[in-house]
Task: structure prediction
Amino acid sequence: ADGVLEIPVIFHVIYRTQSENIPLSQLEDQIDALNEDFNLNNPGRNTIPAEFAAVESNVGIRFVLEDVIRVQSNKRQWRPDDSMKFTSSGGSDVVNPQQNLNIWVVNNMPYRGGNILGYAQFPGGSWSTDGVVLDHRFTGTTQYSTGRTATHEVGHWLNLRHIWGDGGCGASDFVADTPDSDGPSRGCPTYPQVNCGTNDMTMNFMDYSDDPCLNMFTEGQKNRMMSVFASGGFREAM
Ligand code: ARG
Ligand code: ZN
Ligand code: CA
Result:
């Protein structure tokens, strides 16, 4: 009624050790961070430069913790291959993906000599693998995280691309009000960072800056996300 879309969240915590079986409070912290970021309440938004504050958006999605499913597994690590999304491969089956955001929390995802913080499926994929996967160390508030990996991944889940369009100058994220850039940002960049002839929006959730330095979505990104829920969109039923 107030124009805010409500999305129930199902967490699947797949753990081996007790420390990987993260507490409810950490999952609640994660929900709080999502609600800050999708409702114009990010704690760092006061640092957004004026040219970008002009297109900052209140996306208007409220995330509600619906259920927590806990599954013990003897796996020490997972590949980003969706195996955690199936009980038959030691994970946990998706729950009503047409109605819910499913988030799988796993212990560790090594990949190409590094670690993946999280990954998401774009709209239009199989319902059986619909949702977001997070490393437990990057879920909610931890020594490594303030919860912005989930915000980034939910952006992908709602059809957003990386802000640099995953290519050099000219590669598009299909959003007009995010300036073109030639690659991801790292750390906590100072303003301005000029690439492709414009200042980079390094504080956009769809860039790769560190959590405390990711602070905004734009109006164009909001429109792209909302079209997923529009009549004829991928999640019309939700
Ligand atoms: N590497 C992941 C991805 O591309 C997540 C990056 C999240 N970044 C962050 N600062 N939390 O989907
Ligand atoms: Zn990404
Ligand atoms: Ca753009």
Summary: The two ends are 15 Å apart (CA to CA).
